[in-house]
Amino acid sequence: MRRTEATRRMVRETRLSPDNLIYPMFVTHGSNSRVEIPSMPDCYQLSIDGILREAEDLVRLGVPATILFGIPAHKDSVGSEAYADDGIIQRTARALKETVPDLLVITDVCLCEYTDHGHCGVIADGEVLNDATTELLAKESVSHARAGADIIAPSDMMDGRIGVIRGALDDAGFDQTPIMAYSAKYSSAFYGPFRDAADSAPQFGDRRSYQMDPPNVSEALREVELDLQEGADIVMVKPALPYLDIIRAVKDRYDAPLAAYNVSGEYAMLKAAARLGWLDEERVMVESVTAIRRAGADMILTYFAKALAALL
Ligand code: PBG
User: Fold this and answer.
1) Could you tell me the distance, in angstroms and rounded to a whole number, from the CA of residue 298 to the centre of ligand 1?
2) Nearest CA residue ID for atom 2, ligand 1
3) Is pLDDT of 206 > 90?
């Protein structure tokens, strides 16, 4: 059955479709701005006009959704622009829903891009304050939903935030807005290029006191269970390729819609090796994303989404 492409196609067990893909984009203030991210070739920080053009491409290619990351005009200790009505994400969501209504807009909810210290929450005595942070995340979520976000995706890893955000969305009349929870998000060195792209590297310490310790499995299952109990509609494992066992374990245990984030470092590795002529970019891209799907992910957040969809 392996001898010809026709027979291989007949017995193929995993299929990739643009339907499975979510394309992350970085948005900045201003206009006509398009700055390539050095460690993420072919990815850009774009002003809203550029985002709208990308959005039209995504619809044409059959990619159903984007996830947005904002680069604010100003950062402060409490991440004010994250929940400002005229914040960069709020403006972008409004423009997208007006111009390209068919594209699903998912918004990443976190404070790290908006705080001057670069941590995902508010700080007191050098520590992240969990409960004070979840209140701000709830404010940010409602503000995104009000601007038109279709799905809210909290990536901060504070305890109890899904329940708090669900309550706040419901109270504000957004009871139909789903939550995609970054449930098992590991404290990973593979986020390096993203932190350059979003200018969100912590200014002191690291994220190990709130993101997960890479050697752990049971803890990931507990995190997923809590998020589902608190009202998550989609759960996520992140990163993807070094954590395929976690994706499989979550899918086997909880048959909930499952996302996996093929993160910036996973992308950068393949791009760099391809540039050196050491790997065939197209083939390693398809093989990697297929592996994430084979492990059990229903949807994959990937910087390859456009290139892959064009190929499929
Ligand atoms: C924000 C956030 C991060 C990523 C997604 N949302 C960075 C981090 O936690 O440091 C990483 C995505 C990537 O590396 O592609 N908290």
Assistant:
1) 20
2) 155
3) no
With a Cβ cut-off of 6 Å, ligand 1 is lined by 108, 110, 112, 120, 155, 191, 194-195, 263-264
pLDDT band at residue 203, thresholds of 50, 70 and 90? confident
What CATH number does residue 215 fall under? Answer: 3.20.20.70
Per-residue model confidence as pLDDT tens digits over 117-153: 988 999 898 889 999 999 999 999 999 999 999 999 9
- Amino acid (one-letter) located at 297: A
User: Range of 306's domain?
Assistant: 12-311
What amino acid positions are annotated as catalytic residues? Answer: 185, 238
Q: Pick the atom of ligand 1 nearest to 120's CA.
A: 16
**Residue 238's closest CA among 178, 289, 300?**
300
Asked if the structure places residue 4 within a domain, the reply is: no
Q: What is the distance in A from the centroid of ligand 1 to the CA of 44?
A: 16
Q: How many domains does the chain have?
A: 1
Nearest CA to ligand 1 atom 6: 155
Query: Whole-angstrom Cα distance, residue 262 to residue 92?
Result: 23
Radius of gyration of the chain, Cα coordinates, nearest whole angstrom: 19
For 17, which DSSP code? -
Q: CA neighbours within 13 Å on the CB side: how many for 142?
A: 15
In a domain? residue 127? yes
Q: What is the pTM of this model?
A: 0.96
pLDDT for residue 204: 84
Ligand 1, residue 24: give the atom nearest the CA.
Answer: 15
Query: Is 215 part of any domain?
Result: yes
* Ligand 1, atom 7, residue with closest C-alpha: 191
Residue 32 lies in a domain: yes
